[in-house]
Design brief:
alpha/beta, 5-stranded parallel beta sheet, about 25% strand, globular
């Protein structure tokens, strides 16, 4: 019976040059494979070993890339292995089937957000008026579903982020700080809901997941077995749960370890 693997991408399986955490001597650094090019520049990487493991995983399980990225941002990524039949984009707002949005799923998500959360326009306007241009580099709206800022982390006041989180909580939204991006996302917009839908469609009997950020927590809780790396928002908060294994590895080597764990769980040893 099918095993479903729903994994976050950025800082879980793929890494920017700033997030690689290559702390070993240069001569012992792993060989890297570029899996994303943006504006003619290499942007995201995984180790060659990870690429081999992901190819094996694609043959052993239903692998579902699960990301907060927009569809356009996701489609820049060129992962090794079989082309995934399903992908979850925009934090669950879009379910791609053979690369195409499932419109019924998307319409259902939109209806749920309209019924349960403050409108996107209210959040966008609050960000525009409360964020200081001294540390904001970009204001962005993603897929007409959520908003995010690109900021200068060194200048970003911690108190502002805390105040934004309280403001958003009262309106049915959540806030996540990931690298140079601050996300404001409606609470019902979840990766876990989309993962459950794919599990239903594939008749999966075992679900596995991995992720590093606050926006991945619901996904990790929803899966039968989950893993988080030793970096990211969840690690910073020492977050865990009975079905979640906290790994010590940080950076791109955490991606290798996560894929090893996926394969081990998908093919447990015979007694």
């Amino acid at each position: 019976m099918p095993v479903l693997v729903a994994s976050d991408l950025d800082r879980t399986l793929i890494y920017s040059s700033a997030a690689l955490a290559l702390t070993m001597p240069d001569a012992r650094a792993p060989r890297l494979l570029c899996v994303e090019v943006h504006e003619s520049k290499p942007l995201s990487f995984m180790t060659e070993t990870s690429a081999e493991l992901l190819t094996q995983l694609g043959d052993a399980a239903v692998f579902v890339p699960t990301t907060t990225r927009t569809r356009k941002q996701y489609q820049r990524i060129n992962l090794p292995g079989p082309e995934p039949k399903f992908a979850i984009c925009a934090n669950g707002g879009h379910l791609l089937v053979d690369g195409v949005t499932d419109e019924d799923w998307h319409a259902g998500v939109q209806a749920k957000l309209a019924a349960e959360c403050a409108p996107l326009e209210e959040v966008r306007d609050h960000l525009a008026t409360s964020a200081d241009p001294a540390w904001v580099r970009k204001h962005r709206i993603a897929e007409d579903l959520f908003a995010y800022l690109v900021v200068e982390r060194d200048l970003l006041p911690e108190e502002w982020v805390k105040e934004l989180a309280v403001w958003a909580e009262n309106r049915g939204w959540t806030v996540s700080l990931q690298g140079r991006k601050i996300y404001a996302v409606p609470k019902p917009l979840t990766k876990s809901a989309a993962m459950r839908e794919v599990a239903h469609r594939t008749n999966a009997t075992l679900t596995l997941a991995a992720g590093d950020s606050l926006l991945d927590a619901d996904l990790l809780l929803a899966a039968d077995k989950s893993w988080r790396p030793g970096h990211g928002e969840l690690a910073d908060d020492s977050w865990t749960a009975p079905n979640v294994t906290a790994l010590p590895e940080r950076g791109v080597l955490a991606g290798e370890r996560i894929l090893q764990e996926f394969l081990r769980a998908a093919h447990p040893p015979t007694p």
